[in-house]
Amino acid sequence: MPHIDRRQALKLLAALGATGLASACSVGTGDDDSAEETGLISDEPVRIGLIVPQTGGYKPIGDEMLNGFQLFLDNNERRFGGRPVDLVIADEGETPQSGQAAVESLLKQQVLALTGVANSAVMLAIRDTVEQAQVPLVGSNASPRNLQSVVYIWRTSYVSDEPGLALGAYLAREVPDDGQVAIVAADQPAGRDLVQGFREAFGTSDERIAAPVIWADPTPNPGRDTFTEAIGEVVSQDPAAVYCYFTGSAAVAFIRQLRDTGYDGPIYGPGFLTEGTVVDQLGDEATGIVTALNYSADLDNSANLRFASGYRKRFGASPTTYAMASYDAAQVLDKAIRTTDPGVSAQELNLALGRIGQIDSPRGPWQFNQPRTPQQKWYLREVLRDGTVLSNVLITELATLG
After folding, report:
1. CATH assignment at residue 94
2. Is there a single domain that holds both residue 64 and residue 184?
């Protein structure tokens, strides 16, 4: 690209919004360049907006996301690319409206980038706001299937149908030919994606999943009778196995109420079903639950040994996928900012995100694909007693998706 300097080229590419073109033109420093090597160290702070639930039913997930992000900052002198980080936290709450308000408040504070977002309904609600503001969002949890054709939204987690895709083919081999799988999920965007992915991988026309999907109350704060009707439908199908999607306190309530009916058959689901404090709250009732997820705290790689040991030392608990993906979001921002000039614009940072290459993650190495989500491995886990502690134990690798 002759006759224009680097900054002019970056502005041109930002207007085009094309990550692929940025790579093709080879504008700017490469993946191996660092702030130290290029003399771009600066004491000018970079302001980052973190959107996580600090109130409501999704707060436990928000706490994990905050912990993961803070751990990376603490391990790196609270700097991204050698520059001090001014972290501004906004409460996502548990509704699209509260999430939208959080984003708008951060944009008014002129953040260089956004990160976080737990709830898929919130992600869908803020999509246009983020795209119009032209401020990159490195999402670390919510990633609905129909979030397409975005330029400024990246995700370090997964696409929300992928846990179902990873588990569906496996379960199709496990269920007897004459067995039925009861499918039950919270009636919300993530639940619909997870069911769709599972059915596609299992085989949409397979008679073993022919019964209607059971859609349950999506509240994150269930009462004693919240799932009575849904569980009644599950039991009436006399299933050989149950595939279900719930998180946090809803997962605890659903599994406990299902076991109370006398159902003692196998339970499968996306890994969120047993993440966080769910296993601790359920105790032995969680034993044997099998899930698919992009992370397990017992993965044997150097990045995870550092991350998991550091997390346990700092927070007194094993890390979850929520914490890991938020840690990686911080790592992504650090790596992108490291290749930019002091005073970088949000649009220039967005281009830099497309050039960061492979991430050495606790989940294993991954990189962004064209839709701005990770190409990564998925793992099969089972809740088993590991010594005296119940935990999600890694069983095998299922697939590489993305």
Report:
1. 3.40.50.2300
2. no
Position 86 scores a pLDDT of 98
Look at residue 40 in the predicted model and tell me its pLDDT. Answer: 52
Single pTM value for the model: 0.87
Q: Which DSSP state fits 239?
A: -
Residue 147 is given by DSSP the state -
H helix or E strand, kind and range, residue 51: strand 46-52
- Report d(CA 294, CA 7) in Å as an integer: 37
Query: Chain-wide mean pLDDT for the chain?
Result: 90
* Cα gap 38→31, rounded to integer Å: 12
**CA 236/CA 254 separation, integer angstroms:** 16
pLDDT of residue 36: 43
Q: ∠328-333-339 over CA atoms, to 5°? A: 130
Average pLDDT over residues 304-318: 96
CA dist., res. 383 & res. 368, Å (int):
30
Parent domain of 139: 6-158+300-368
Alpha carbon distance 208, 393 (integer Å): 28
Q: What order of strands is seen across the sheet that includes strand 46-52?
A: 79-80, 83-91, 46-52, 113-116, 137-139, 153-155
